[in-house]
Specification:
This protein is an alpha+beta fold.
């Protein structure tokens, strides 16, 4: 049985509602997602599901079918959000992004869980570590009990006309939100205060320009 699987894959959103959720604080760069593999109208569709149980994006049919087969082989699958983007084409524009998709055998859970967390921490900082490897690199993960991390980096996709990267690392406010998730109420309220302050500043600017 395959011990490990890793790749970067593009995902898309089914509606602007999902896109709005991706841009919010419930989906931070470096967040881990479970993968829900389903058949929709006879076509394989693998969804990324965030920690709040919400579907936020799906992979193309070919890769979705591949993930379905890996799940059937009892592999544990996880996706890690790398970035969120918007492209003007095809019209009327679409929100999409990339995630690192990792798989491992359940018997190696104690080894690969800290490895996945290490990859997620790097991605939260805007670093895209290489995840597509086998052989000796997988041995290093197991021998280090998940503490080994790759030094090679995965380049960002080529930026094209009409394409904008909206999220590619965690901001200071995202860090406060994460601390709030972990039970630090002070950071939680501070993050909301900062966001409300930003909204107030935007409104003030619009009024100064005569928009309101």
């Amino acid at each position: 049985m395959e011990r490990y699987f890793g790749t970067y894959q593009t995902f898309r959103t089914a509606s602007r509602q999902e896109a709005a959720a991706l841009l919010g604080s419930d989906n931070l760069v470096g967040d881990e997602y479970t993968i829900d593999c389903v058949l929709e109208e006879g076509e394989h569709k693998a969804w990324m599901v965030n920690r709040f149980g919400e579907r936020v994006g799906y992979f193309d049919p070919g890769f979705s079918r591949e993930l379905s087969l890996k799940k059937a082989q009892d592999m544990t699958l996880v996706a890690i959000l790398s970035f969120v983007a918007f492209s003007e084409q095809p019209e009327p524009g679409e929100y999409w992004g990339q995630a690192a998709v990792l798989g491992y055998t359940p018997r190696e859970k104690a080894v690969f869980e800290p490895f996945v967390q290490g990859i997620a921490n790097l991605m939260g900082k805007g670093i895209r570590p290489q995840v597509d490897f086998e052989g000796r690199a997988v041995d290093q993960i197991i021998e280090s009990r998940g503490q080994w991390l790759p030094s090679n980096r995965e380049p960002m996709p080529e930026k094209r006309k009409g394409m904008a990267i909206l999220k590619r690392k965690r901001s200071f406010t995202d860090g406060l939100v994460e601390q709030g998730r972990k039970g630090n109420k002070g950071c939680y309220f501070l993050s909301w205060a900062l966001m409300l302050g930003l909204v107030a500043l935007i409104v003030f600017g619009l009024k100064a320009c005569g928009v309101f």
